[in-house]
Amino acid sequence: MKHINFKNNKSLLLVLLFLVLFKGFSQQNDFHWEEKTSNGYTYKYVSNDPMQARFYTLDNGLQVILSVNQKEPRIAVNIAVRAGSNNDPKEHTGLAHYLEHILFKGTDKFGSLDWEKEAPLLQEIEELYEVYNKTTDPDKRKEIYTKIDQVSNEASKYAIAGEYDKLMTEIGSQSTNAHTWVEETVYKEDIPSNAIDKFLDIQAERFRNPVVRLFHTELEAVYEEKNRSSDNDGRKVMEKMSDALFPTHNYGQQTTIGTIEHLKNPSISAIKDYYQTYYVPNNMAIIMVGDFNPDLLIEKIDNHFSYMAAKTFDGYNPKPEKPISEPITREVFGPTAENIRIAWRTPEYNTKDARILSLISNVLSNGKAGLLDINIKQKQVLQEAYNFHMQLKDYGVFAVAGTPKEGQSLDEVKDILMGEIEKLKKGDFSSDLLAAIISNYKLQEQQALKFNNGRLSSLLSVYIKSNSNAWDEEVASLTNLSKITKEDVVRVANKYFGENYVAVYKRKGTDKSIMNVEKPPITPIETNAGKQSAFVKNIKSMKEEPIQPSWVDFKKDLQKVSYGNTELLYVHNDENQLFNMTYRFDMGEYHNAYLPLAISYFKYLSTNKYSSEELNKKLYALASNYSINVSNEETTVNFYGLNENFDELISLFEYVISNCEANENALEELKSRIFKIRKDNKSNKRNIFSGLNNYAVYGEKNPFNDVLSNEDIQNITSKKLVDLLHSLLKFKHEVSYYGPLTVKELETKLKVNHPLPKTFNSYPQKKTFKYTKQLENKVLFVDYDMVQSEIRWVRNVEQYDVSQEPMISIFNEYFGGGMGSIVFQTIRESKALAYSTYASYIIPYKKEQMFQMSAYVGSQSDKMLEAVAAMNELLNDLPEDKESFKLAKEAIKKSIQTQRITEGEPIRLYYNALKKGIDYDLRKSIYEAVDMIDFEQIKDFHNQKVANKFYTYCIVGSKDHITTEDLKKIGELRMVSLEELFGY
Question: Shortest CA distance to 981 belongs to which of 603, 692, 633?
């Protein structure tokens, strides 16, 4: 087997990689602003921009940023406002976030059945809130709130809850959402390319005159969001860090969700003032990436949004922060594992130092060859270590963080992390690492250019931070980064990483500062489900050119050829010189419980030719990688990189997996870290909830807790694990490939680099688990220190049957699939019982598995019984909303119409089909069946499979807030211990 001498050829490899990735790049590294006029509209663009982004500024100041990508017939959209929580009034923090929610409630033309009758009631509610937030007497506040509730209930009779969400579903939009952060509020959609006219009509109206309606129930959803943040230790660490780093700037002094005091005293008038101040065209941008004609699109956008009038306004102009002269220490308490974060304040966006700090982030950690990767992760010095660079407009934040191993203190973790910072400041790293980072950046950019959201993210970031003025610098960033020297890195590290840091200690313990928001009395509002405004009816009547769906033909779109005694699946890549290849084994943890442990051990092993450190550096320098992933029933070896590196990458893996040598110290450290992971898992709410779900589905003995005992792990030997690694490729596996090689070229290379044994080893016998039967209502409860309660309904229904998938797809979309679904509209919009809620008839990925009915509500603990009752009512009696049902069917069809299975995706689809026992594109069957299914069939399905059935209720919450008596009202109670749940 041929091996290249890495040490002697590293620079040559990097040069070759640079030339392959960007052929002719040196002739195209001139990035400057230019101007052009087309179809009567002038736009700016940056020369040699791979996105070919166009930057228009309309007469009213509205920016329009367009980038064409015809990979699929869809368009990703961000409508961005350059104002966020930084701009909140001091007395009304959280206001920008409130407003984001309000922009989903409609205007005087949609979202309302009768605006003339609704308007005076909304005015009365606004005036009541102004009195309410100035009143301090508790009894009087209750009296006013009762009146607010009464008038709100009356006003809801004229409101159409969720009409915007349903309208976007109707036009085929996906990912309808929004976010608010410190400097931005962004509204997000992903629409079919044939829906542009409808979309622009809707958005132009949406921002014309947003109406603050259904306010007190939406406010309750924000309360729930605040409570969720109180249960999130990571968010609390971020807030403490920001407060210390920015004692003056609103980055640290105002949180996006706002304070509890301000949440309790909202002002609709202040929200309206904020909208009038900042939602002006000269402070907004429409960013669209996807399949469109930019010359036609800009004219349409101009016609729709020219009504907006520019206004002058005072932006957020903070005083400069004073330098931090000495270390600042903060503490956070909570139930999750202890960790420490050390952070420095760094300079504003689009400075040379900020760009160098971005590069430094990868010098410290890049997944393979950074200082933290090599010196801490590879040597298992800490339980966990990472760093990040968060670049905002006015400042940046650079942080390193770590989690201690068993027996380590947080101060020891701090010293270890600071030791790596000192190495960085001394230049204790190779200059070759900088070239490798640039090579990997270029590879990542090539991937990001393929996808609308990748482009959209870059365009949005630059707009928010620089009003798009820095796009030339963004396009030139790889060129500029490649000019950064080791001396630059050392200079910047020494400039910013001194004793001017903030250290936040996340300790285990009760957070005594938490104040949960108490449940106010709310009368469920009228949602007017199924009713429509005249505006929406008009939108629906607009004609659009249909998009024809595209199906995968497994006989044509991929090749299946015999390779030795296995099968090779092949799809040709004619777009670039990148390849993906996978070895796929029908063997996983269920076959051998030691397999995941062996794979974890593998990353720390060396051979007689390469140390593990050299292997990582080699892979990173090649901008290529291999990885092994183990699931319950499958193992995959995945290769990714440049086609020129195919031979070296594959042969390197084959050599390492066959010749890796035991490392006793690494194994002992791995065991120690596994024991610590197990301990930490018991304090992680997400893991606990996952364990409860497995307990409900499979019973006391389930895949979650049927694991190696601590004794088994302690007694495992290096020989057992290494022997397992050495034998891996002797088990039967298929090979799949997407890349530029021809089938014959691939076969030739595989015969050299991946020779197969004459006969494969047989798989070990697979462990199986029996599904439970829900014969009565049961409650599985785990006590956890939290503000909220989390509830999941679980019922195993029946064996998988592929013919049911069309029916289930419609049921899920209609019943619990999104913001326009029955579940969301009832539990959140009408009853204000949760921030997050959904329900789904779960389709298994293998024919041997069972369908399950699952539902979820995350609510305040004092709402738990109400939330359970509300979901049970929906599970037992399916409301009929003919319009929503029609929308659900249309949403499924439009989603499938715009799906394009490209690159290596036919291979994934083929394997998914095999697991379900079919040999065709299942999407086609669903698409053709949708129109033939009516509501009565869905109703029958619901009655037979879902309604009036027994469920297991998985509940995680605090016993200080949830009583045993309340739990027993739901079903037979079982308090599950963490030992039962985790199996150790």
Answer: 692
Query: What is the domain-level CATH number for residue 625?
Result: 3.30.830.10
* Neighbouring residues of 718: CB distance < 8 A, sequence distance ≥ 6: 601, 662, 663, 664, 667
User: Are residues 504 and 521 located together in one domain of the fold?
Assistant: no
Q: What's the number of domains the chain is made of?
A: 4
The pLDDT value given to residue 516: 66
Cα pseudo-dihedral 843, 849, 850, 855, rounded to 10: -50
Residue with tokens 């197990």, as numbered in its chain? 678
Looking at the structure, do residues 199 and 136 belong to the same domain, yes or no? yes
Task: With respect to residue 28, please indicate whether it lies within any of the assigned structural domains.
Answer: no
Name the domain boundary from 753, 770, 788. Answer: 753
What pLDDT does 263 receive? 86
Task: Say whether both 147 and 279 belong to one domain.
Answer: yes
- The CA dihedral of 306, 308, 310, 313, to the nearest 10 degrees, is -160
Same-domain check for residues 58 and 113: yes
**In terms of Cα–Cα distance, which of 482, 470, 471 is closest to 438?**
482
DSSP annotation of 112: B
| pLDDT of res. 9 | 40
Range of the domain at 831: 778-919+933-982
DSSP3 helix / strand / coil % (the chain, rounded to 5): 45, 20, 35
Give, as one character, the DSSP assignment of residue 545.
P
b vs e for 55-80, b when ≥16 Cβ sit within 10 Å of the residue's Cβ? bbbbebebbbbbbbbeebbbbbbbbb
In a domain, 121, yes or no: yes
Using CA atoms, how far apart are residues 489 and 359, in angstroms rounded to an integer?
8
Residue with token string 């036009």: 171
Closest CA to 308 of 107, 124, 58: 58
Q: Which regions in the chain score pLDDT beneath 50? A: 1-27
pLDDT tens digits along 379-418: 999 999 999 999 999 999 999 999 999 999 999 999 999 9
The answer to the question of residue 7 being in a domain is: no
Residue 83 domain-assigned? yes
User: What's the order of all strands across the beta sheet hosting 284-290?
Assistant: 33-38, 41-46, 54-57, 63-68, 284-290, 74-81, 185-192, 174-180
Q: Which residues of 118-147 are buried (b: 16+ CB within 10 A; e: fewer)?
A: bbebbebbbebbeebbebeeeeebeebbee
Give residue 8's pLDDT.
Answer: 37
Based on the fold, state whether residues 479 and 334 are members of the same structural domain: yes
* Secondary structure of residue 858 in the 3-state scheme: strand
| E strand or H helix that includes residue 487 | helix 486-496
Instruction: With beta carbons less than 8 A apart as the criterion, state whether 749 and 591 touch.
Output: no
pLDDT digits (tens, 9 = 90+) for 776-810: 999 999 999 998 999 999 999 999 999 999 999 99
- Looking at the structure, tell me whether residues 371 and 248 fall in a common domain: no
Q: Tell me, yes or no, whether 385 and 527 share the same domain.
A: no
- Return the sign of the alpha-carbon dihedral for residues 796, 798, 803, 806: negative
Q: Give residue 228's pLDDT.
A: 82
CA 897 to CA 548: how far, in whole Å? Answer: 6
> Which pLDDT does position 225 carry in this prediction?
85
